[in-house]
């Protein structure tokens, strides 16, 4: 790792960046995926269509004819059922705000490891810097910085269902770059607006009022993650993020131009690359939404492949409910002919359990919604 002094970073670094590996120059066994989960083990990627569906949200910015809004809602419903993933353009997040966030993230990651370690995540507070996240018990080739949108955030003190203790936690902010905190706050406020817009459209697509789900986010645990994937010496063995489904309601993701995100297509289980579109956001349905919709909508598995040449940056916003929310199929969507597919679970405990398993390697698989599935 580089040994530059933190004070050298008070001014903006040169725009010419040299990718460097924060994870080391060789690959440790902890990063190596089982054979069946390694990237590039699928033969016919060439036959896959070019990209996931793109939805233009521009009509929300002007008084739209009801029929056009209906068309948009219908399209969103279709892609959330068939893919669980789509991109949005003309989404209302100012490009300047995104660019400021991207620049600040790069500057943060350019700092020496000892500087980043000053804001390290720990077992008590899940926010801050972390370079050894495990997905499905295999270490990811990445470093992350997480911050809550609303602070202080109230979270369960443990994943133990009988432990009622709560903990109040604040974000950890690095000293450098000096504008980091302000830029993060500005960025997440804009992305949160987009998340509420999409939440409303998805609710409408289920035949519900646009604000039906808003009450679950009063004390939301949403957070933004700044992902950095350094070049990897063995990209055929490791993954930037192992295969997983997102736990929350929806995710709003900005990716740079490098590429590497792949979604497992619902129709045939094939891994499908999501080609970067400048300035677009990728939206994906998370577990909570799949459960609320009683499996009408699909939370798709996805992963990130890395490469040996280029570093990559991405910024997911995980739209997470308040800790006290019970997640179960919505009453309006179940009836005698469509009984609930899940029993209720507490969001805070699910969050705490996922966080423990992300924090370090464990003997058991991390928590999944399938554990709450009812056999109808
Ligand atoms: O980097 C990406 O494109 C996706 C990141 C992701 O899936 C995650 O952080 O959970």
From TrEMBL:
Family note: Belongs to the iron/ascorbate-dependent oxidoreductase family.
One Pfam entry name: DIOX_N
Domain Fe2OG dioxygenase residues, every copy: 220-321
Signal peptide annotation: none
Name the UniProt record assigns to this protein: Fe2OG dioxygenase domain-containing protein
Region called Disordered, residue ranges: 1-26
GO MF entry, a single one: dioxygenase activity
Record PROSITE patterns: FE2OG_OXY (PS51471)
This protein's UniProt keywords: Iron, Metal-binding, Oxidoreductase
Residue stretches of biased makeup (Polar residues): 1-14
Keyword Nuclease carried by entry: no
